[in-house]
Structures are given as structure tokens and as C-alpha cells.
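Archive entry. Fields below.
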Amino acid sequence: MTQNVLTPITQALNDGVLTRSELKALMQRSDRPAFIHLALWLLLLTGTGTLIWMSMGTFWIWPAMFLHGIVLVHHFSLQHECVHYTVFRTRWLNDVAGNICGFVIMLPHRFFRYEHCDHHTYTQLHGEDPEMIPLPSSLGGYLWYISSIPYWRTKFTELGRHILGRLSADEMRFIPKEEHRTVFLEARIMALGYITILVACIAFNWWAPVWYWWLPVILGEPVMRAIRMTEHVGRPMTRDMKENTRTNLVSWPIRFLCWNMNYHAEHHYASSVPYHALPKLHRILDGYIHVEKRGYLGAHIDILRQLTGRTPRVDQTAGAPQ
Amino acid sequence: MSRERNWQDLIAVSELETGDVTPVRLGTRELAVYDTADGITVSMARCTHGAANLCDGYFDGRHIECPLHQGLFDARTGEALAAPARVKLRMIEARVSGAMVQVLL
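PREDICTED_STRUCTURE:
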């Protein structure tokens, strides 16, 4: 048996920040909000996809693909919620939706589930959190990360490794032996899916996947990289969940796009609370967690101030790993 | 040498969280008491995967979900139903006697 763990939510209950009855009420699941959200989501995708169709053959196809890409890369947010089984009450629907999202953005779902488990266990701990995005060392490093080039390099390497039936030392740590074959199988199925679509494109001279899917995802990914940075980058590298995670207050359309993932500290506190209840949890935990009231922009100002030396870097403060 | 097991009072039925899971401490043991659709069951409270306290997780009347990684267990049998949970929960034999939930320990 592993040593008993004090989860953030147990800590919050012990601190009297919320009551058990409040927590239990917040954890109640429902399929309805997810189906409504998903219907609007598909409508939005249709809308941005139509913009691409209307602008085909003109310069405007590039901003249209960028816009469509921003929506497409937010399938990560939906997949992330599905990893936690907090979208649908019906548990298998989370697996189905999560796998579809993973195919859209090339993030194998089972692999992500295991990686994300360790992210929650070791949030923002250097060398232990497999999803940790380090605070860039310079402005160049910051722009390089946002360009998504290192991200895609990592993702393609990762997929290739799993197709070949290999795991890195870090992956061996968070993927149990019994699941290695599943991870390899899902990578191979995913690759086969992409290759089949590519062959169909060439065989039938049908390039819709390129214009409506792959190019938009590539164009949109820098937006997702910038958003992912706002969650933990620049926050103290400590186990203390009150400090190591940033909640960003953003407008309703952004909350819709990210499935309330902006309430990130609340999510880390109680990852069993469904996405639709996170605003309520935010009202309860406000004052207990770190909230960036200026939203994503404020988070990036904080990050940029640290990497330009205007405020101390969190990785150079006492106790931080060197 | 095997120790003789006895029925011990654990918690009054009236103190249980209705239709939910209630945390109870018995000596040094942390236990989870489930008010399931099929009756009262009791398990060790810690998840067999990451050792989080299951009593703070989501319970739907049959299944208990770990609050840390959302692994799933059958609260009636202890079976691990979904990753990352793989090892069965240790169930404690329980009964309702009068107004008390009792466990055989």
C-alpha cells in the first residue's frame, strides 16, 4: 500500500473551506449540461468551418483557418474533462468523447489519462510532474514554446515511440506494466487512422481534412500552448495547491471554449467536480486559492515579468530546484 | 496464531450520510461506510492506487470514484472497475444490528 495521501480536497475539507455536503452537491453528475454544451460546440465548429469554405481561394482562408483552429485545439479541454470523467454522468460517454477529441488533436486518450494522473499527484514538482511546462529562461524560449514547434516535436516523437512499442523512462514510471500494450495499440490505431485519411486524400484528390482539420490545428496550437502556460507556469514549484496553480478569470465565450478549465486551481482541488459546477466551486474557494483576475493576459504578464527579471523567478526562489 | 474476530459497533445508522459514503475512524483504521442501493457495506477508506481518501470521492449508490484520479471501485464487492485502480478494495464484513452498523474485525 502506498503511503496515505492528503489530497487537496481533503485538505480543504480539513481547513473548513467547504463542507462535505457542499462538496457532495458539487460532485453530482449530469449528462444534460454536456449535451447542450456539445450541441453548441458542434454549431460553433460548423460556423468556423463555413468561414473556411466561404473564404476558399482567397487570403481570408488563413484567418478563417486560424479561427477554426482555435476551436479545434480546444478539444484538448473537452478531452481533459473526459479524462476525469467529469463531462458526462454516463461514464463510457466520457471515454468515447475523450478518444474522439484525442484523435482530433493527436493525443492518445489512455496515454493521456495515465500522464495526467501523475500531473495531479505531483503538480508543479520538478522532475515528477510529467506535464510540467518549465518557466522559459528567456523571451526567445517563451516564443519558441508558444510557436508549438517543441510541442509537436515531442508529440510526434512520443507517438512514434509508442508505435514502435517503446516507452521513455518517465513513461515507464507513470504507465503500469499491464497497460503498456494498450498504450502501444492506441498509438498504432491512431496512426493507422491518420494514414488511411491521408491515403484517401491522395487517392480521391480530396483535401478537406487538410483545410478543415490539420492546417487549422497547426495554426491554432500556439493559442493552446499560450493557454496551457497560464495554468502553472510562473507559479511556485511546491506541493501547496493554494500556490502552485493559477485560476484565470476569463469571459464567458472563453469559458465555453475551454469547458471551464480556466478554473484550474478549483479543478486541481476537486478533480471529481464536473466542469459545469466549477464556477460554483470557484465562489466557495475564492480567497483560498490563487486567482489571476486579469485572466490569461495577466498570467502572461506575470510570466514575462519573471523571465525579464522584473520580479524574482519562481525557480530561483528559496527551496526551488536548480 | 489467528486472532478471534468480533462484531464491533462502528457508527449509528442515523449518522450515515444517506445514499452516500461516510468516513469513520475505528482506532487507527480509516474506514468508508457506503449506503449502497443493496445495503450497507464497509471498506478500508484508502484508494489502492494512490492512497487518497475515497470518502471524499463521488459515490453513485453502487460505485465509489477516487477523488484524486477518478479510478473506480464497486462499493459492494470492492472490485476495481476502472483505471488507474487495479487492486481490489479490502472490504470489511459489516451488518446492521439494531440502530448500529457493526463490523467484524
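CURATOR_NOTE: Chain B has a mean pLDDT of 93.
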